[in-house]
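To fix ideas, we quote verbatim one protein's residues and fold tokens.
>
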Amino acid sequence: MADKFLSKSIVKEMTGISTVTLWRMESRGEFPKRRQLSPNRVAYLESEVLAWMESRPESTIQCVDAS
């Protein structure tokens, strides 16, 4: 199955992490690197984000209310 690209807003919704925190974690190597899709568009690989989420201790994953 082909890997999907996820927008920053989807990743923020999935993880509960803010844009600034995502950027800081990514720059420290604590979060998967985003991919440059075009000059003005970046995305994350779904498999890498899901693997990162699975690697986190359960107590640090925040639940995001979808409503």
In short: The first helix runs from residue 8 to 15.
